[in-house]
TrEMBL record:
Keywords: Membrane, Transmembrane, Transmembrane helix, Transport. This is Sodium:proton antiporter. It is found in: Membrane. GO terms for molecular function: neutral L-amino acid:sodium symporter activity. InterPro entries: Na-dicarboxylate_symporter, Na:dicarbo_symporter_sf. Gene3D superfamilies: Sodium:dicarboxylate symporter. Residues 1-25 are annotated as: Disordered. It is a multi-pass membrane protein. GO terms for cellular component: plasma membrane. The chain crosses the membrane at residues 38-60, 66-87, 99-124, 155-175, 195-214, 220-244, 265-285, 297-325, 337-359, 365-387. Its main location: membrane. One of its GO terms (biological process) is serine transport.
């Protein structure tokens, strides 16, 4: 039960009494975060790949085969479990305000995707000139054969899952909320818990096995060089995106965009430290209000955008996808990449709020639309999580810009969708 709902009798003891109580539990030990575990897995995979005997390496190759098979089985269920209730929930709420915020968030997300796509197609062929690993091999398909494998066919294909999710999600917006909507919300809970309890904890082991195999196959140095070049490019692109977003916000609010961006610095720093949009909501709200966004607008837009606005994540995924396609010699079909960015904007709306949740939601369309294999998807996961906090910080800071634009567009136009006191706040 939340602390605000506690009765007086259940209130915690004063600090001096609590410190004197021998029954108090010991302070929690700080957890070893996902990013340090991923970095450690990559380093160990590279170093041990130079000396590990093949018999022991086959153990990790076997694990990687089982893990990737389970992930392929789970991807369609992830799509249905996340996308369907997300679309259903977007159909209810604050009417015009909801539609306006969702449209701006989606537009910002896909524009960042197209920006990243254009820059990647322009710069990466030069930055990665001569870098090639041919067809990136899955560890379980390499000379290091697994001890055994298990076939895990998915319930249905990825595209079937997407179409089913769209049809069901749109259908849920047309009917009264009932057992079906609650069932999909429970399915989402199951999917998120599965990601949190199984996929995320085992990712470092999977990435260790993948980099172990790449090292033993002689492909690792090209991959590492590619990572460094693309990481620098992506970090520069996130700065450009934020400047452009706040130029638009400054025009809307008739304020200095650089000062508005500087006001959002605490939100950026909070997201950088927590890698969580949800944990940054209170700080983002405070910063948006300091930028002149009415409380009624900020209180609606910021929590919603924390879920549906993932411009930084889309930028990262698009850039690394093009890089991997270049070094593996895949066909850079422009129409296919445009379709990928448009679909990625939809999938990002349903991304769960867990570390690496955005890339986990995107694995399905990476495979179905771009033809990524297991090893390429594994590299995408590793590269994404390596700079996950910077993408989250970009998402969160951009939420403040969207709140500013919404406050300008919505002023005097959507008050009929809000409570009376909220309408007064908009009119300020």
């Amino acid at each position: 039960m939340p602390s605000s709902a506690r009765t007086p009798e259940a209130a915690p003891a004063p600090a001096d009494q609590a410190s004197a109580s021998p029954a108090d539990p010991a302070p929690r030990r700080r957890r070893f975060g996902l990013l340090p575990r991923i970095v450690l897995a990559i380093v160990l995979g590279v170093l041990l790949g130079l000396v590990m005997p093949e018999a022991l390496a086959r153990v990790f190759t076997t694990f990687n085969g089982l893990f990737s098979g389970f992930l392929e089985f789970l991807i369609p269920l992830i799509i249905v479990g996340l996308v369907t209730p997300a679309i259903g929930e977007l159909g209810r709420g604050a009417g015009k305000m909801l539609a306006l915020t969702t449209a701006l968030a989606y537009a910002s997300t896909i524009l960042c995707g197209f920006f990243a796509l254009g820059v990647s197609l322009l710069l990466l062929p030069r930055l990665l000139a001569g870098a090639s690993v041919g067809t990136l091999e899955n560890p379980e398909d390499s000379a290091i054969a697994p001890y055994f494998s298990i076939d895990m066919p998915p319930v249905f294909e990825v595209m079937t899952a997407l179409l089913l999710s769209f049809c069901l999600g749109i259908g849920l917006t047309l009917v009264k909320r009932g057992a079906l909507q609650e069932s999909f919300e429970q399915l989402r809970t199951i999917v998120v818990r599965t990601i949190e309890a199984i996929i995320i904890p085992l990712l470092p082991v999977y990435i260790f096995g993948m980099f172990l195999g790449l090292t033993m196959n002689g492909q690792i140095w090209t991959v590492i060089g590619t990572f460094l070049a693309v990481v620098v490019m992506v970090l520069v692109l996130t700065v450009i995106v934020l400047v452009v977003q706040y130029c638009a916000a400054g025009i809307a609010m008739r304020r200095n965009p650089l000062r508005m961006l500087a006001t959002m610095a605490p939100a950026y720093a909070t997201a950088l430290g927590t890698s969580s949009s949800a944990a940054s909501i209170p700080v983002t709200l405070q910063c948006a209000r300091r930028n002149g966004v009415p409380s009624a607008i900020a209180g609606f837009v910021v929590p919603l955008c924390a879920t549906i606005h993932l411009a930084g994540s889309t930028l990262k995924i698009t850039s690394f996808a093009v890089a991997i396609m270049l070094i593996t010699g895949m066909d850079l079909s422009i129409p296919k990449l445009i379709g990928f960015v448009l679909m990625l904007g939809v999938v990002m709306i349903a991304a769960p709020g867990v570390p690496g949740g955005a890339i986990m939601a995107a694995t399905g369309i990476l495979s179905s639309m771009l033809g990524f294999g297991d090893a390429a998807v594994g590299l995408m996961i590793a590269s994404y999580i390596a700079i996950d906090s910077f993408g989250t910080a970009t998402n969160v800071t951009g939420d403040g810009a969207i709140a500013a634009v919404v406050s300008r567009i919505a002023k005097g136009r959507v008050s009929g969708d809000l409570e009376h006191e909220e309408a007064d706040a908009i009119a300020l």
